[in-house]
Amino acid sequence: MSDALGLIAADRLALSRRRAARVARIERLWPALLPSLFVFGLYLAASLFGWPQALPDWLHALLLGAVGLVMVWLCRRALRRLPVPPAPLAARLLDARIEQASGLRHQPLATLADRPVVSGPGAEALWRAHQGRVAAALSQTRAGWPRLGLARHDPWRLSLLLAIALLAGAVVAGSRAPGRIVSGLWPGYQNREGPPPHVQAWITSPEYSGVAPVFLATDASGGVGQTTIRVPQGAVLTATVTGASRPPSLGGDGRDRRLGPQSWTMTRRLESSTVLRLSAGGYDLPRWHIEVVPRSAPQVGWTEPPTPAMTSGKEDDGSDRSTRDQPLLRLPWHVSHPYGVASLEARITPEGARMPIVVPIPLPGRPRDAKGVATPDLAADPLAGSAASVVLRAADGSGEVGESPVARVRLPAHAFRNPLARAIQAQRRRLALHPERARAIAADLLTLGEAPGALQTQTDLYLELVTAAALVGGTMAPDHRSEAAAMLAEAQGRLWQLALSVEDALGNDRAARAASMELRAAQDSVREQMRRMRELGPQGQNDREQGELRRRVETLNQAIRRRMQALADQARRQGNAIPMDPAMGGGGLDLQKMMQQMQRDAAEGRTDQAMRELKQMQSMLDRMRAATPRDAAAAAQQAQAAAEAREQMAGLKDIIGRQTALLDASQKRDPHPDPTGNPTAAWRDAPGEMPGDAPGGMPGDVLSDTAGDTSAGPPSAPGSSPAAPDVARRDEAQAQHTLQRATDELAQEFKAFQGKLPQKLTDAGEAMQRARAALRQGDDAAASAAQTEALKDLGDGGQQMRQTMSENSSRAESGSGGIIPGFGPDGQGGGGDQGDGGDGSDGGQGSADGQDRDALGRPLNQGSGRHGDDDATSPVLPGADAGARSRALEEELRRRDSDRQRPPAELDYLDRLLRPFAR
């Protein structure tokens, strides 16, 4: 039993010694681990307060790594300094710990290893008995707990401060403490704390696109937006996050900026399609699918091949009369771009030219899809008349440029009638093609000065020729090489003006030629001021520029009058006559009205429209400037025909008005009126807007001249006369007979002047005859139907009259050219290309005969509002003049905005309303 007890005690002792060794190891390592544990405790306290998590993820990770390195370094440093006792001493120390922990006295463990001092049977028995008692006592040995002695190793009591910090952090974190500890030890871990952050996001498109900002859908609960957002390349996404406990995360490269304690803004430039995901505060915020539309060049092309834009016709000598009109090149264009076209130009390269001619084409703002017709005037170019290649170049706001296919065209040229002017133009062409032959060209120019003609008889023209020849020859001088290009350009300009002056001298006396030159100078002056105002933009609308424009327009007006007077004097001396109208024509497109409209458009900032009107007016002035006495005689005939046409149209209006009154009386007596109503209601609602309404009212009562007394007209209303219905019908039948005779007379007069009988007027007379018979029989229903038919035929007859007058006027202009403005077809200003004229952004060709008109031939006008209310030969339907209403609205807004005494809120509102008009 003693041996078994010894084995048990030995096993127990061995176990206790192993445990004691572990405890001793812990006690030895504890002082070495204390610095590292203190650093780690500080980091945990900071995590409970959320300080590391507030850092960017990369800085958070860097801090965590630094803490770990410090802890490792402190441990290694302390472990290296630990003493290592010898093995016997270490064993004795372990036994002493066991004895102390087990409460054993007198070092019983040492007894196990001792030997008796004396030997003998008695001594051996006594020793074994002693060892047995010791073994029995060792059955309850313990290793004990480690004695860390924190106070002994922390004399500064830093552990107490650490405990306070951890306790405070735990109190602040509360239930979020575990999540904060995890997020502090795991950089990038999104710990959801508090409510979801508030997100606002939008995409700002680049300026070239003209697209408004796009506000993005946000779902703070982590929803995913599946809609693909299309944006132009270069757009910028901006996201603002408010209420996030730590910096948000957004994919892509960009800039993040802190706005406040819990507010951030992030920007990302979008150059390619991507998916951006936003997260903050432990929440997965929206995810946006963005498709980036790459930059692309505008699409530009021709709607039809370019052609010269001149009126056709032949001179008496068989030459092309179109050269007497303004030679224009017609360029029908079409551009498109998803985000708008910023600029458009035509590059025209004549054969043999060293540099292309660049013609800017104005666009209405930045259109995404637009088409029009540019009509540049290239007559002054020395290579006019040459075959040329034309390319359209369109650019968007980002600088991307698209080109059209190359088109071939022969440039229109001013064909001079004077041989000397043609010779000067030929030298200009030689100089443009071969500037190296400048000396020979200068000699040829001086030779032209010796030829009989205007250069011999008029000193000023000869001096101009000599000056131009000197400039041409001087370009080859060695000391003028640097100025050669400028000298050549000046010489070309002088030679062009000289050719025009020589041409003006043909068939004109000195006074007429001087008036023509003055008119040309005034034209150039107005055109230059208009170009300057357009280039200045909003600054070109100040009082100074407007006053200068008014002064130049007034000078042009005076030059026009002097030219007309000189032409009339010259025609009078040659036995011809030309009618002089102070307003220079009675039509809506006469020069006076065009100048007034041009001034209004320029004053209100519509410089492109003003330039188009100026160009149209210049075409008319060029014909006036080139007019001869023969043209004056033709103009007189056109004026007479126009006056007759206005008188006849006025007579037709009078007939329509009286026939309408008869129809009213018949319909009011008819117990079963036509459910379609009176077809003339619109005519009565718009008095003064009948076909043929002449300016200032009718020239006289046509009925009085053709049908005798018409005072016995129909009653103004039923029951207004005490006469019985039969008496009223008899009076109306008599009035109907008078109108029938007046209609027949008008048709015959029109045939006598225009050579063609309007068939619809004949039909109207027959309908009136049936209405008269029905009235005599007391059949108001039949009379009403016949009168309605008569009114319809009168309207159609008015259209036929206008068509015939237009055809006759066109034939007259083919012979005379419509030289004098104001005496064109139907008495409306002659000249002025209606379709292809303009500055270059005209979108159409004008209205063909019968197109864009109502049943009476009145133009719908499409809201242009160009002719004013007194254009009686071309009345406008009520409500169609949208352009005039828009201008009136703008003028009223500007009038109110000019009163700076109004309340600031009202002035700010007016300024916002005026912004669209300033574009």
Automatic annotation (TrEMBL):
Residues 815-847 have a biased composition (Gly residues). Residues 600-627 form a coiled coil. It holds the Pfam family DUF4175. Residues 298-325, 665-740, 761-907 are annotated as: Disordered. The keyword 4Fe-4S does not apply. The chain crosses the membrane at residues 29-52, 58-75, 156-175. Residues 711-725, 770-787 have a biased composition (Low complexity). This is Uncharacterized protein (TIGR02302 family). It comes from Endobacter medicaginis.
